[in-house]
Design a protein that fits this description.
The protein has 4 helices and 4 strands, in the order βαββαβαα. With 129 residues, the chain is of the alpha+beta class. It folds into 2 domains: 82 residues, SP0830-like domains (Alpha-Beta Plaits), CATH 3.30.70.1280; 39 residues, no CATH class. The protein has a 4-stranded antiparallel sheet with strand order 2-3-1-4. The longest helix is centred in the middle third of the chain and has 16 residues.
């Protein structure tokens, strides 16, 4: 299975620095294959035979804590989840200009309370489709 791991809080403002070569090495040490990092972002794409995202997140977080000495929260999404976002094309009605920046945010856990902003944007996306 292909996963994207988004590591939170590394290489920001000179704090919690992890060179991407070291990050790739640690993911490989964990048994993951086809490990690729994206720029200096802390985003990692990799393959694994495991299909338990929760267990993989914990495994990565523990390894990075032990090796680098600080906590690194990990948000994991499989390739199908990423493809579904692309298929939704949530920004298709937005006119792109050089000043526009579009972002997709991922939450680590499903919210326990309804988030008003999320409901607002979900309505707008549905209305625009």
């Amino acid at each position: 299975m292909i996963y994207a791991a988004m590591l939170r809080g590394i290489n920001v403002g000179g704090h919690h620095k992890i060179p991407m070569a070291d990050l790739r090495r640690e993911f490989t040490t964990l048994g993951f294959t086809n490990v690729t990092t994206l720029l200096n972002s802390g985003n990692v794409i990799f393959n694994t035979s495991s299909d338990s995202a929760d267990k993989i997140e914990i495994k990565i977080e523990k390894r990075l804590q032990n090796v680098f000495g600080f906590s690194v929260p990990v948000i994991l999404r499989d390739a199908d989840e990423i493809q579904n976002i692309i298929k939704l094309d949530p920004f298709k009605k937005i006119k792109l200009t050089k000043d526009i920046r579009l972002y997709v945010s991922f939450l680590k856990h499903k919210p326990t309370k309804k988030i008003k902003a999320a409901a607002y944007f979900r309505r707008r996306i549905i209305q625009n489709n």
